[in-house]
Structure formats: C-alpha cells, structure tokens
C-alpha cells in the first residue's frame, strides 16, 4: 500500500507588497513543515504579495522562474510547495497564480480563472484571466487538482479538475469576513464548500487561508485539511498556525467505490449539453432561449 501523504497548510498574515519580508516568512514556515516531515506544504493565495499586493503591481509581480522562488524550493528539499504570487507572464500580462515547486524546480503553475469583481473584491482591475483547468501528478497515486479561491465557487471548474484525474483538491484562498457583503457568511461557506467537494468526489482536500487585517478586510484563517469522506483532519484557528495531517490513499479508494461520482460522470452528455447551451445563448434572439 502507498504510504500516507503528510500534508501541511501554513496560515499567516502577509505583508502587503513586501516581497523580501514575505520570502523570509515563507522560509520560516518551510522549516517548520520540514520538522513535521511534511511531503506537501500549501501557502495561502497571493502569499508572497498580500491580498492587496496588486496595488503595487509593477513592484511585486515576478516571473515564474524567479530565483527567489526556486531558492525557497531548494530549502524545502523534497517537500512540494504551493506558493501564491503575482506572476508576470509573457507580454506583460499579470496573473494571480500559484506555483507548485519541488527540489528547486517549478513543476506546475495554475493561473486563477474565476476573478471576482463583487463586494470588496476587484481582481479584474489587475489580473488577466487564467484559461486552463488541469492537474499534476505528485506521486504514483496523488494528483493535484489546484484551484485558487473563487475558482471553487464555479463548480464546473472543480468538476473538470476531478475529471482530469485529481485525487487531491488543493485550494489556496484569501477570504475576508467582509469580502462579499453583509449577510454572507464566508467562514461557514468555505467549511460547507470544502466538505461538499471532498465528500462528493471522494478525495481529500487542503484549504489554506490567511489571517490578520489588510485595509478593509479581516481574514479569518480557518485553514483545514479534510479526508476523502469530507471529515476534517485538522482545522486552524484565527491566528498564525501550521496544520498537518496524514492522507490515506486507501481511504480514497474506499470512498470512490462507495460513491462513484467521477466514474458516473457522463462526459458525452456534458459535452453535448454545453455545446447546445453555447449555441443557444450565442443566438441574439433571446426568444429562442425562452422556447
């Protein structure tokens, strides 16, 4: 049997736009996670820049090959890191991105797709939109489905990640209590969302949030690691904290045998209906859609 995967999530308060201080903070959490023999360490969304780091966009954006990123990964040894940053891509396009790093190499990158522009969130002002949902193998059995924060509020993106073979959902987030608006309970919403996805798709999940206050947002922490039945293995409080848990692939096999959501997804039907929906909504005459 595959040995358990030791997963970790680090939650803390990034310094807005201070790359140097944030790299130092990351190194401290890397050393702490290594002391727990972690195989995988997940940092929050935009962990190197801060939630409002894009207000100094040209000063904090870095390329995916930035030496500091690779050096951070070398310090982690064989431990895999998921690090949030503002990526400067080709043609001076800027992305809210998460890098997957191992042994001094970038092994995968996800660019956030679902950029929120509601409540107190204005990401479309700064970032280009990611265009792909994919997964990346980090072992014989474990394949990351990596999505960033609001990506998970588009269930179709999560569904695609699992149909691409994900066996572990990783969610760096930056969730403030006031982000959406009065009456919307972000902490409860995220708890329900992570439970639902792990339970529905029979896969463990890791959510890493930040803490502290940045301008008009109060970040509540609550990072968590869930098992393949959606049960919490570790849940952080509202302060800086490292949480760890062992993830068992044998349990994932059991969960998917009991509830075969991935197996029973009818790809041909989904593709057909999405094409039909696109064709219908693309017709200027809205009467056709009403029919």
Automatic annotation (TrEMBL):
InterPro entries: Aliph_Amidase/BUP (IPR050345), C-N_Hydrolase (IPR003010), C-N_Hydrolase_sf (IPR036526)
Species for this entry: Rhodovulum iodosum
Keywords: Hydrolase
Superkingdom of the source species: Bacteria
Protein name per its UniProtKB record: N-carbamoylputrescine amidase
PANTHER family tied to this protein: BETA-UREIDOPROPIONASE, NITRILASE C965.09-RELATED
Domain CN hydrolase, residue spans: 5-249
Pfam family, one: CN_hydrolase
